[in-house]
Give the backbone structure.
Amino acid sequence: MDRLKTLMDWFDVRLGVREILRSNLQGYLLPRHVNIWYSLGAVLLALFTLQFLSGILLLVYYLPAADKAFVSVERIMNAVPYGWLIRTLHMVGSNIIVAVLLLHLLSVLFMGAYKKPRELTWLSGFGLFNLSLILCLTGYLLPWSQLSFWATTVATDAAGAVPWIGEGLVTFLRGSPSVGAGTLGRFFALHVVAFPLLFLGLVGFHLFCVRRAGISVPPFGPSARPAGVGTTFQHEVHRDGIPFFPNYTVKELAVVMFVLAGLVAITVFAPALFLPPDALEPADPFTTPDHIKPEWYFLWAYQTLKIFPSKLMGLAAQGGAMTLLALLPFLDRGEERRPFHRPLFLTLYGLGILLLLGLSIWGHRS
Ligand code: HEM
């Protein structure tokens, strides 16, 4: 214990560590009535950490070549000690991450936390959401199974609908006119180096924005009237709030543990939940499977492309909806954040969720 204190003193003299810890842990106050939805950011941090660690371990045995990838994944699953556990955690983890990302996005939307002065927090979060989906898409190809091969063929094919540059864009994404060894090489480089680096930078910026602006007060109850935001920078202080550590950290850890328990439960008791039969066959460019469906979180996009008369119209509808969502803080500029005082927002919010669910179920059944 004395040794630890001496070490701490050594760093403290040089870096003022105790002051940093005091102001960021006990001295950092969060709104008194902060609710469970505010823990989802920490859940995402925990899940992404696990994703990075399991991904690094998978790299030890995975081989990114068209004639070796599938066999190397089979080896990880059947021969490498605990390989099945690491691979299944990585695969199930990606699905849980998308679900938690959606909940985090929907909760900050519902509570109006995207409004001034948190536009940059929202925009960086929206960037993270898209980047996470791209990470899922690029990772999906790596096992080089029938499912990965044909799902990537269908997904990259959609880019061909872009006027003038469509064909060139498809070749650029695939590295050749059709999905092949070159596609695997570039998806591998993007999935394990380029996008994770970009992701880390963006997470850093997102957390900086959250910390700098201060956590928003939950917009519920009679005291939650619009506070009014000035024209100069102001960190939102909560003088009667609860300390980040230990009070809030304990609550947050409980939610993190609950989600991690769910992840482990699926990994151990239902490891094949996200592994349809086509994921167990090696890629065969000459045999198209009967039913190729994307992962559950892309079903809405898949169905949108199918219901419009042309792919271009489908892509335009998706692009339009995503752009509107990204720019929401600049379109919805009223100061009111209480959901039940914003009937138009609440109606659109409910209809949006129903549309997303309806399209996904339709896509699943079609
Ligand atoms: C890798 C993904 C992400 C991570 C690690 C992350 C992390 C966090 C953390 C730790 C917080 C503070 C606590 C909380 O309110 O949960 C936060 C807040 C916030 N996040 Fe995220 N986030 C991610 C993605 C997103 C996405 C997809 C959006 C929306 C498009 C978003 C928008 C926001 C907003 C607006 C806040 C401020 C909430 C407030 O002050 O009340 N984040 N995020």
Summary: Residues 161 and 312 are 5 Å apart (CA to CA). The chain has 14 helices and two strands. The chain has a mean pLDDT of 95. The radius of gyration is 23 Å.
